Amino acid sequence: MSTSTLRSEESVREARHVERAELLWETFDVPVDEDGDTIENDWLIFEAGHSRMDIWEWFENTLGVSVAYLTGHNEPPVVAEVISDEAMQQSERMLDKVNAAGTGKERAGGPR
Fold it and tell me: What is the C-alpha separation between 9 and 88, in angstroms, rounded?
């Protein structure tokens, strides 16, 4: 397999991962406390009362996708140099969880 083919396959793999992260971000439509610091409802693996910043860090540190990108800022989507297999699997598992719960709806905006 040529080097350019490998790079192309990696680009497709990364694009799919970023798309899954975007879909997860769209479901992150949970109420927050009046300070905007903690979530008031459970969301995926995070229980009510969890810090919104911790969840943002999870997107960046676990999934490797920039919150600045997810919030619509003109930033590159990927913060990790290489998206790990573990991050790919995590985004896929979380999206499966969202779809199983029937909450994979499109989101129109609001606080995250």
Answer: 14
In angstroms, rounded to a whole number, what is the distance separating the alpha carbons of residues 48 and 43?
A: 7
Angle between helices 3-27 and 85-101 (to 10 degrees): 40
CB 23 within 8 A of CB 95: yes
The tokens of 10 are what? 């990696």
112 residues of the chain, pLDDT tens digit each: 565 565 677 788 888 888 989 999 999 989 999 998 999 999 988 999 999 999 999 988 888 888 999 998 877 787 766 677 787 788 888 888 888 877 544 433 334 4
**Distance (Å, whole) CA 27 – CA 74:** 21
pTM of the model: 0.70
Tokens 């994979």 — which residue?
104
Reference 44, options 33, 34, 29, 57; nearest CA is 29
Dig out the tokens for 26 from the structure: 């769209």
